[in-house]
């Protein structure tokens, strides 16, 4: 089903068409008509199935452009998802005049957020902690709210935000439209749905995404301004017959193709502005080896089948996993091996994890080819051309010239050959090792959250490392068996400060870049708490954690000695008061 068939307004259809969307995904086809009709929706679908467009497009269609107060509120579990959703709203509304969307999340300056709120935005996308902060301060008004969306509700439950979500939902006006999307439906999520959704029909979509096993998938972590340099290195250093480079916009296809052409590549672009005859001519040229690289958008590359393509470069990371699968499916054709490389900026790492989870395959990080590698590749390529020329061409005329020039220039064969080689390689110099400095790796750790429970930048992990099940949002944390050496640490925040175990997990996971599954047992006391962490935490991270705040209290983390303040009892075993710090604990059998 096309988006125009879904009765969306023309500006929205025009926008999604330019973004490369051809047909609606199953969750979009099912949810958009209901949300357009003003109904509540409970959607169960895996990440990467197009949920953002499923709620953003119909809610934008119902927006009142004359009203500059918040009309739509989207709650997202992490900073990255909030940014991603806000960017999607902005992209879909590109032809809607006077539209404003505002992302709100921890780590941003309150001053800047307050200024943006005063200017007015029709759509607010935020993490529960920061949204609740603004509600408590009275800086965010929801009295004119028309719709609220809970995106990845089960993830918010897993991260301990469910109480904040309940509080925010209770603060929204009666009669507002509600859309809730979740990959799973644990009991607490269904309880929220039963309380806040009215006559909602559940939409359940099974993900069918899979990737071609024979395709080698890798990613490069870099800053956005390093992409062109990185692309040049990849095209120089990787072995491939032909390549397709995917970007998001039509203008980018032309810009990058022009820059690659200026560097000597046989390249052309494919985008939605090209007529069918031009498109077919470009594809014929690639099949005939007249082109080696095509720079394309998703929509322009649909149905592209060229056996020569052995390398796909995702210059711009796709917004959903379905698009990624279509992209990399352009290689590995006819039983051949293929390679796919993905450029990822630090703020896009969540999209990378989404793709890994949906495709059920890990994507390995790679290093860009060094100057030495590129130099050696150029030398080998030039040598191969020489060998082919010697074998296939009649060189008698040139041999006579060489003999004549050697005598007239009074030089040796080696010097003459070196001079000719120098002239032949000027357009693509062979001696380039020192002209390719190493690209600076971006610093991927996020800044500190203003609200510690508002976890944003989760650490990297491959598919299969996700903890199974949902962590309870209330009550004591279940003891788990830990592998490796662990220490028990003391932090100076406790029950009297209103701290919860989820607050501590969120702060430490975010600041120390430790996956929550490697954070051990937490015990809450009146004035302090203890937490089990790996014993090999680097000193700079340990010192940083000392300065982190949870519930407005500095952690001031130290190795736990077992001592308790006067009048406060410890529960459970521990070293006697004043004992030396415990040695790292051995793995449990």
From TrEMBL:
Protein purpose: DEAD-box RNA helicase involved in various cellular processes at low temperature, including ribosome biogenesis, mRNA degradation and translation initiation.
Localization per record: Cytoplasm
UniProt-listed Enzyme Commission number(s): 3.6.4.13
GO biological-process terms attached to the record: cellular response to cold; ribosomal large subunit assembly; RNA catabolic process
Residue ranges annotated for the Helicase ATP-binding domain, each copy included: 32-203
Chief localisation class: cytoplasm
Any one of the GO CC terms: ribosome
Keyword field: ATP-binding, Cytoplasm, Helicase, Hydrolase, Nucleotide-binding, RNA-binding, Stress response
UniProt family annotation: Belongs to the DEAD box helicase family. DeaD/CsdA subfamily.
Reactions that this protein is recorded to catalyse: ATP + H2O = ADP + phosphate + H(+)
InterPro entries: CsdA_RRM, DbpA/CsdA_RNA-bd_dom, DEAD/DEAH_box_helicase_dom, DEAD/DEAH_RhlB, DEAD_box_RNA_helicases, DeaD_dimer, DEAD_helicase_DeaD, Helicase_ATP-bd
GO function term, MF aspect, one: RNA strand annealing activity
One Pfam family, short name: DbpA
UniProt keyword annotation of Nucleotide-binding present: yes
Listed name of the protein: ATP-dependent RNA helicase DeaD
Basic and acidic residues biased stretches: 437-483
Disordered: annotated segments: 434-487, 560-589
Stretches assigned to the Helicase C-terminal domain: 227-374
The species this protein was found in: Alishewanella agri BL06
Residues covered by the DEAD-box RNA helicase Q domain: 1-29
Taxonomic superkingdom: Bacteria
Chain positions of motif Q motif: 1-29
Alphabetized SMART domains for the sequence: DEXDc, HELICc
């Amino acid at each position: 089903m096309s988006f125009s068939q879904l009765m969306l307004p023309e500006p929205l259809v025009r926008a999604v068409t330019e973004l490369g969307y051809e047909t609606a995904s199953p969750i979009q086809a099912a949810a958009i008509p209901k949300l357009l009709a003003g109904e509540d929706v409970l959607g169960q679908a895996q990440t990467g199935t197009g949920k953002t467009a499923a709620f953003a497009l119909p809610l934008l269609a119902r927006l009142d452009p004359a009203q500059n107060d918040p009309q739509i509120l989207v709650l997202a579990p992490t900073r990255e998802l909030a940014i991603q959703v806000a960017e999607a709203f902005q992209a879909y509304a590109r032809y809607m005049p006077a539209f404003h969307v505002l992302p709100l999340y921890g780590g941003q300056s309150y001053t800047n957020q307050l200024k943006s709120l005063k200017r007015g935005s029709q759509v607010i996308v935020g993490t529960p902690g920061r949204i609740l902060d603004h509600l408590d301060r009275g800086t965010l008004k929801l009295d004119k709210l028309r719709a609220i969306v809970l995106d990845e509700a089960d993830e918010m439950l897993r991260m301990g935000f469910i109480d904040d979500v309940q509080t925010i939902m209770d603060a929204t006006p009666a009669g507002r439209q509600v859309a809730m999307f979740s990959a799973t439906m644990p009991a607490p999520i269904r309880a929220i749905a039963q309380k806040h959704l009215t006559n909602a029909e559940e939409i359940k979509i099974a993900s069918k995404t899979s990737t071609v096993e024979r395709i080698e998938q890798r990613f490069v972590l870099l800053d956005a301004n390093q992409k062109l340099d990185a692309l040049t290195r990849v095209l120089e250093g990787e072995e491939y017959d032909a390549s397709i480079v995917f970007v998001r916009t039509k203008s980018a296809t032309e810009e990058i193709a022009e820059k690659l052409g200026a560097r000597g590549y046989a390249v052309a672009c494919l985008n939605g502005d090209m007529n069918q005859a031009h498109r077919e001519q470009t594809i014929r040229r690639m099949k005939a080896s007249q082109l080696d690289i095509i720079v394309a958008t998703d929509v322009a590359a649909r149905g592209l089948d060229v056996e020569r393509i052995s390398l796909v470069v995702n210059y711009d990371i796709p917004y959903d996993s379905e698009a990624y699968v279509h992209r990399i499916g352009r290689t590995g054709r006819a039983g051949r091996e293929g390679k796919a490389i993905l450029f990822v900026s630090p703020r896009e790492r969540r999209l990378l994890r989404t793709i890994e989870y949906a495709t059920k395959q890990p994507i390995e990080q790679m290093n860009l080819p060094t100057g030495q590698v590129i130099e050696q590749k150029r030398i080998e390529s030039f040598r191969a051309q020489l060998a082919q020329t010697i074998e296939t061409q009649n060189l008698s005329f040139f041999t006579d010239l060489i003999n004549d020039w050697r005598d007239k220039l009074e030089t040796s064969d080696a010097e003459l050959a070196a001079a000719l080689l120098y002239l032949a390689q000027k357009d693509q110099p062979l001696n380039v090792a020192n002209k390719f400095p190493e690209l600076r790796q971006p610093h991927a750790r996020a800044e500190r959250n203003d609200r510690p429970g508002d976890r944003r930048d989760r650490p990297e992990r491959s598919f299969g490392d996700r903890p199974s099940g949902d962590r309870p949002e209330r009550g004591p944390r279940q003891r788990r068996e830990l592998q490796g050496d662990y220490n028990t640490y003391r932090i100076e925040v406790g029950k009297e400060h209103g701290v919860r175990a989820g607050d501590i997990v969120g702060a430490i996971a975010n600041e120390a870049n430790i996956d929550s599954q490697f954070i051990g047992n937490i015990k809450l006391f009146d004035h302090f708490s203890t937490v089990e962490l790996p014993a090999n935490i680097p000193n700079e991270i340990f010192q940083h954690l000392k300065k982190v705040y949870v519930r407005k209290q500095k952690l001031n983390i130290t190795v736990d000695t077992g001592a308790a303040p006067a009048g406060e009892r410890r529960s459970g075993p521990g070293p006697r008061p004043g004992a030396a710090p415990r040695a790292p604990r051995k793995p449990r059998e």
